[in-house]
Design brief:
The chain is an alpha/beta fold. The protein has a single domain, classed as Nucleoside phosphorylase domain (Rossmann fold). The protein is built from five helices and eleven strands. Strands 1, 2, 3, 4, 5, 6, 7, 8, 9, 10 and 11 form an eleven-stranded mixed β-sheet that branches. Helix 1 packs parallel to helix 4 and helix 2 crosses helix 5. The chain is globular, with a radius of gyration of 18 Å.
């Protein structure tokens, strides 16, 4: 019987695990409560992969209610050392086109009230967030997207809003004026919690629409719900191909700084 462990974790919507081989479903308990759903564990090219739908299999958990601490902790309990964190985003810049991918290297946190650390004392812990995304995984994901012929940007900043509401036009224009590329509701605190547990994390942002602040500018028409669904489905299909190609390229040994993120961080 296969072991309920995995070396690579993937967050995302339902459907990805159709690519996994030798799958089994496991439930993981954590000190922080239940994760968003059960995990599906399987294989890609002989590598063990754990998949968790970030919002639950029925998309029943909105972004501001996701138990991010439980999700990341459960990944570690399964043995995961690297996490792939794709997400749908809106574009904040006319040159960041719909249907393109962005491999983010920075985030801006505009959320409030989320449980965003494992370290509430008595040991004071300050991890560095200067470069929150794993450089090794970012390079692999970018190169894999390029090889697939995908319009992809090797870097970018995602601004993370609290949700569940979308931005006002004024908020969106402000974000755009700062030069930030995309907007999303889930990247924070997911990425920093992974760093606190010394897990490598990479984001793949799938651009589905132009945010409200730049709709109508530079000839950009507001997108319809049908168009968003069409683009999201197309992106998800391409994402599955990218992940399937990328997983075998991930080295078994880590040489990045993610694995030693707590070194010197605790007072």
């Amino acid at each position: 019987m296969a072991s309920d462990t995995a070396e690579i974790g993937v967050f995302g919507g339902s459907g990805f695990y159709s690519f996994l081989e030798n799958t089994r479903v496991v439930r993981v308990d954590t000190p922080y409560g239940p994760p968003s759903d059960r995990f599906t564990i399987g294989e890609i090219a002989g590598r063990s992969v754990a998949f968790l739908p970030r919002h639950g299999r029925e998309h029943q958990v909105p972004a501001h209610m996701v138990n991010y601490r439980a999700n990341i902790y459960a990944m570690r309990e399964l043995g995961v050392k690297r996490i792939l964190g794709p997400c749908a985003v809106g574009s904040l810049q006319p040159h960041v086109k719909r249907e393109s991918f962005v491999i983010c290297d920075q985030f801006v946190d505009r959320t409030s009230g989320r449980k965003d650390t494992y370290y509430d004392g008595p040991i004071t812990t300050h991890i560095s967030s200067a470069d929150p995304y794993c450089p090794e995984l970012r390079r692999i994901m970018y190169d894999t997207c390029k090889a697939r012929g995908i319009d992809v940007r090797p870097e970018g900043t995602v601004v993370v809003i609290q949700g569940p509401r979308f931005s006002t036009r004024s908020e969106s224009r402000w974000f755009s004026s700062q030069g930030w590329e995309v907007i999303n509701m889930t990247q924070y605190p997911e990425v920093v919690l992974a760093r606190e547990l010394e897990i490598c994390y990479v984001n793949i942002s799938l651009v589905t629409d132009y945010d409200v602040g730049i709709e109508g500018e530079a000839g950009l028409a507001p997108v319809s719900a049908d168009e968003i669904i069409r683009i999201l489905n197309a992106n998800n299909a391409r994402l599955k191909d990218v992940i399937f190609d990328a997983v075998p390229k991930i080295p078994t040994e880590r040489t990045c700084s993610c694995a030693t993120a707590l070194s010197g961080a605790q007072l």
